[in-house]
Design goal:
- The chain is of the alpha+beta class.
- The protein is 64% helix and 12% strand.
- The chain has 17 helices and 17 strands.
- The protein starts with a helix and ends with a helix.
Length: 402
């Protein structure tokens, strides 16, 4: 008892640091507890949940938690992930298993590794795969994949062969799904092949367009333009041709309208007809001057283009797809003014017409009134005659009686 009291006194005065066991029969120094924690961790293969340590060493969980944090800060070979304490021994073992899996499969997914070892994908990528890469410089680590140099060479060869065999545009995602390859590796291999010039084509976004397809589409577009003098923008889009780049590359000149690219010679022909009409003080509709498949919006844009280039007379007026000369407008306005003046003079020169009409209407009204009075008078006369007739009859009967 004297020894226990002495030890407790020393602990209270902070002269010694001891940790009481759960059984209450022993004390442990912090260093001894650290050694026991390391022994338990090694006995469990280098991975142990912190909540299981108290049962193994017989010390309360709060003391174990505190010692584990201090050990992890002092020793960088220890890591704590989701409540588990991991040693470098365990990480080396995981790296060795991944190395063996790579030798067999050539490529492993980080997400699959995270599920297999119940570890975060970021921890696998940043800690475990670094050990794997350090052991072999031929391994390549991507965002979600690790693969060997030999596997990368095989993938590049398959991608090169697949792209060389393409006759139409194809997306890299569809190519990866068809050949069961990683999409990121396919994209990297395609970019490398294009950079080295081993395949001919163009990569726009995630779509690869073979040069043979582009040449065929370009030839179709060229033939249509040379035959018709214009190129529908819908045809250019479906053929994967940029009108601006195509015209610059081929040396074609023209104007891009609402729905088509119009050749320069058709623009000049239309301009000559428009200029002639305006010079003769007339007007002209621009739509009939264009190919029949072009719309009124194209004709309107052509007139606006010519006006912007100052190729139309200054007094020309544009109304939708119609160009009107200033002199024509003046002549129309003058004719309207003359007709209006004649009509006004005619209306002023015949003011009696309404009076005659009024007199006729009044005479008609008087006639109607006279007719009405005559009829009434006639009815009165008839009535009077009827009354007198009755009186006469009475007189006759009376006379007869006399």
């Amino acid at each position: 008892r004297n020894c226990i009291d002495l030890v407790l006194k020393l602990i209270q005065q902070d002269q010694v640091k001891l940790i009481h066991t759960s059984s209450g029969k022993e004390w442990l120094t912090p260093d001894q507890l650290d050694r026991e924690i390391r022994d338990v961790l090694a006995a469990n293969g280098g991975r142990l949940n912190v909540t299981e340590i108290p049962a193994e060493v017989g010390v309360a969980v709060e003391h174990c938690e505190a010692r584990v944090e201090l050990m992890r800060k002092k020793d960088s070979s220890l890591a704590r992930v989701h409540g588990d304490l991991l040693s470098s021994q365990y990480l080396q073992g995981v790296a060795q298993e991944i190395e063996e899996g790579l030798e067999e499969a050539g490529c492993l997914s980080v997400s699959d590794l995270a599920t297999r070892y119940n570890l975060p994908a970021d921890f696998i990528r940043d800690s475990v795969l670094d050990i794997v890469s350090a052991g072999s410089h031929q391994h390549v680590v991507r965002q979600n994949t690790i693969y060997t140099g030999a596997h990368a060479s095989r993938v590049q060869a398959r991608v090169r062969g697949a792209l060389r065999g393409c006759t139409q545009p194809v997306t890299l995602a569809a190519l990866a799904a068809r050949h069961r390859l990683d999409a990121d590796m396919v994209a990297a291999a395609a970019q490398k092949c294009l950079k080295e010039g081993v395949i001919q084509g163009k990569l726009q976004g995630s779509t690869f367009t073979p040069k043979a397809f582009s040449d065929g589409q370009s030839s179709k577009v060229d033939d249509f333009f040379r035959s018709n003098g214009y190129l529908p923008l819908a045809m250019a889009k479906s053929s994967g041709v940029s009108v601006k780049d195509w015209a610059k590359e081929k040396g074609f000149e023209g104007v891009t309208l609402s729905s088509a690219f119009l050749a320069a010679h058709l623009v000049e022909t239309a301009h000559a007809s428009i200029a002639e009409a305006l010079a003769s003080d007339s007007f002209i509709d621009a739509q009939p001057l264009l190919p029949t498949s072009l719309s009124s919006a194209d004709a309107r844009e052509l007139l606006q283009h010519l006006a912007a280039k100052k190729r139309l007379p200054a007094g020309a007026l544009l109304i939708e797809h119609v160009a009107v000369s200033k002199a024509f407008l003046k002549s129309v306005a003058g004719s309207f003014e003359a007709e209006t003046k004649v009509a006004a003079e005619k209306a002023i020169s015949s003011p009696s017409a309404p009076g005659k009409a009024g007199k006729k209407a009044a005479a008609a009204a008087d006639d109607a009134e006279d007719d009405g009075g005559s009829k009434k008078k006639g009815r009165r006369v008839a009535k009077g005659k009827k009354g007198r007739g009755g009186d006469d009859s009475d007189d006759d009967f009376g006379g007869g009686g006399g």
